[in-house]
Q: What sequence folds into this?
C-alpha cells in the first residue's frame, strides 16, 4: 500500500505515488537550480513541466490510474538525466568568459552549513564534519568532551554556530556543505543518493563497525539528555533573560532621555564621581560619561546583534543588512577606542588620587 | 585531452544548426525535433532542447505558436523567423567552409 498525492502539473491533475512525487519534485527543483542563471528560467521550466505532464498523461490514457515511480523514472530518462543534460551544458559553460567561471567558483565555495538529514540537536556537528571531511560521530564526541572541560564555552560555541550557520535545505546546499561543486551531474547524484537513503535507511547502519555503533548510540543518548536540559534551562532562563532585557531597555532609555547624564548620576555613588575634576573637552565629568556610554555600547551592540539573530530564526525576520552590520561594527570600534581612552585616563587619575602621594612610593623604593 | 569532451563539443556546435535546418522545412514540436535528430543519428535528450530553444527564441531566431493537440494539452510549435533564416544562411556558409577545410586537409596533407 502506498500513499498518493494529487498534483497539478502544467494544468493537468495527476494522482501520484508519494515516492514518485518526491523523485519528480527533486528532479524539477534541481533543474530549476541549474537553469536559474539562465535568461527565461520560468519559461524553460514551464516547457519541462508541460512536456512531463504530456508524457505522464499518455500513461494515464493507457489505463494507469496512478503515476508510479517507474513512470517518473521513464520520463526522466526520456527528458534526460541530470548528468546527460550536464553533458550538453558543460560546453556552454566553457564557452563563457573566464569572468563568469570565476564567479561560479566563488558562488560554489565550500560553506559551513547545518545538515538537516543527520542531526541530533541542531545539525551543527554533522555540518562541521561535512565541512572538514571528518567523521560525524567523532565531532560529536569531541563536543561532548568539551562539555566536561571547565571554563570551556562549548555550549556557547554550539549555540552561536547553530544561529550563525544556515540549514542546508536544497541538494545544491548539501553539495556546497561538502565542498563539491554544484553541477547538474552532482545534483543528480545527490538526488538519487538521497532517494536510496530514504528507502534503504536500515542497510546504512550495517556498514558501520560495532565501536562506531556504540559511539553513535552514546552520542544520541547524550544528545537527548542535552536537549532535555536545554528545555529545562530555557524554562527557568526566560524570566532571568526578560529581567536582563528590561534592564538593558531601561539603560538604553536612560541614554536617549538623559544623554548619558542620567546614568552618570546613577553611577556616581559607585565612585565614578572621583573623575569630576578631570576636564575632558572642557567639561567636568565628561570622562565618566564617556566611560559609561562606551561600556554600554561595548556590551550592548554584540548583545543586540545576538538577540536580533535569535529573533530572526524564531520570527523569520529579515537578517541585518550589510550597511547596518558595518555601522554597528564602526560604532563598536569607536566605543572600544573611547573605552580604552577612558581606562587609560581613569587609571592615570586613579594613580594621582591615591590616598598617598605617588612620590611616596618612589621614596619607598629609593630608601 | 578527452575525446568524449571534444565529441560532445562538436555535437553541441552543430546542434543549433541542425535544429534550424529541421525548422526551416516546417514548424515542429520538440518531440518531433528529437525524433528527426534521432533519425539523423544525433542523439540528444529532450531536456537539452528546452533551454536551447528558449535561448534561440529569446535571441529572435525562432518564434512559436500554441497548437491544439489531439493527444493532450496544446503544444508549442517552433518556427524560423526572418532573422533565423538569415542566421541559417550564415551557418550554412560557415558549415560549407568547415567542410571544405576538412576535405582539403584530408586530401592534400
A:
Amino acid at each position: 500500500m502506498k500513499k498518493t498525492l494529487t498534483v497539478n502539473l502544467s494544468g493537468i491533475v495527476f494522482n501520484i505515488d508519494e515516492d514518485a512525487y518526491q523523485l519528480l519534485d527533486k528532479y524539477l527543483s534541481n533543474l530549476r537550480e541549474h537553469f536559474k542563471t539562465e535568461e527565461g528560467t520560468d519559461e524553460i521550466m514551464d516547457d519541462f513541466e508541460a512536456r512531463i505532464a504530456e508524457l505522464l498523461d499518455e500513461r494515464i490514457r493507457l489505463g494507469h490510474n496512478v503515476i508510479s515511480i517507474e513512470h517518473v523514472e521513464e520520463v526522466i530518462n526520456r527528458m534526460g538525466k541530470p548528468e546527460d543534460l550536464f553533458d550538453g551544458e558543460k560546453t556552454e559553460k566553457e564557452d563563457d568568459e573566464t569572468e563568469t567561471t570565476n564567479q561560479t567558483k566563488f558562488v560554489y565555495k565550500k560553506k559551513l552549513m547545518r545538515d538537516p538529514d543527520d542531526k541530533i540537536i541542531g545539525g551543527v556537528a554533522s555540518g562541521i564534519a561535512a565541512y572538514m571531511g571528518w567523521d560525524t560521530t567523532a565531532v560529536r564526541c569531541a563536543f561532548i568532551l568539551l562539555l566536561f572541560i571547565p571554563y570551556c564555552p562549548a555550549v556557547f560555541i554550539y549555540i552561536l554556530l547553530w544561529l550563525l550557520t544556515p540549514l542546508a535545505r536544497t541538494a545544491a546546499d548539501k553539495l556546497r556543505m561538502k565542498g563539491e561543486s554544484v553541477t547538474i551531474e552532482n545534483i543528480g547524484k545527490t538526488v538519487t543518493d538521497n532517494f536510496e537513503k530514504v528507502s534503504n535507511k536500515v542497510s546504512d547502519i550495517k556498514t558501520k563497525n560495532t565501536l562506531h555503533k556504540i559511539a553513535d548510540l552514546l552520542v544520541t543518548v547524550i544528545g537527548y539528555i542535552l536537549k532535555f536540559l536545554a528545555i529545562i534551562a530555557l524554562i527557568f532562563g526566560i524570566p532571568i533573560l526578560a529581567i536582563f532585557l528590561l534592564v538593558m531597555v531601561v539603560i538604553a532609555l536612560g541614554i536617549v532621555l538623559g544623554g548619558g547624564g542620567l546614568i552618570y548620576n546613577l553611577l556616581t555613588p559607585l565612585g565614578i564621581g572621583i573623575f569630576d575634576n578631570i576636564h575632558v573637552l572642557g567639561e567636568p565629568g565628561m570622562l565618566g560619561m564617556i566611560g559609561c556610554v562606551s561600556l554600554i555600547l561595548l556590551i550592548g551592540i554584540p548583545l543586540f546583534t545576538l538577540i536580533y539573530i535569535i529573533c530572526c530564526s524564531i520570527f523569520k525576520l529579515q537578517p541585518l543588512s550589510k550597511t547596518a552590520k558595518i555601522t554597528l561594527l564602526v560604532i563598536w570600534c569607536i566605543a572600544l577606542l573611547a573605552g580604552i581612552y577612558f581606562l587609560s585616563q581613569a587609571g592615570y587619575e586613579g594613580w594621582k588620587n591615591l590616598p598617598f602621594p605617588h612620590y611616596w612610593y618612589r621614596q619607598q623604593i629609593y630608601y | 585531452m578527452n575525446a568524449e569532451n571534444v565529441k560532445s563539443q562538436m555535437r553541441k556546435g552543430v546542434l543549433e544548426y541542425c535544429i534550424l535546418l529541421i525548422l526551416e522545412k516546417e514548424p515542429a514540436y520538440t518531440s518531433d525535433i528529437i525524433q528527426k535528430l534521432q533519425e539523423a543519428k544525433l542523439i540528444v535528450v529532450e531536456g537539452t532542447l528546452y533551454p536551447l530553444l528558449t535561448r534561440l527564441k529569446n535571441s529572435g531566431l525562432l518564434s512559436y505558436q500554441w497548437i491544439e493537440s489531439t493527444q493532450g494539452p496544446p503544444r508549442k510549435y517552433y518556427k524560423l523567423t526572418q532573422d533565423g533564416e538569415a542566421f541559417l544562411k550564415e551557418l550554412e556558409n560557415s558549415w560549407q567552409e568547415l567542410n571544405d577545410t576538412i576535405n582539403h586537409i584530408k586530401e592534400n596533407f
In short: Strands of chain A lie at 4-9, 12-17, 279-280, 283-284. Residues 259-360 of chain A form one domain. The mean pLDDT of chain A is 72. Chain A has three domains: 4-106, 109-232, 259-360.
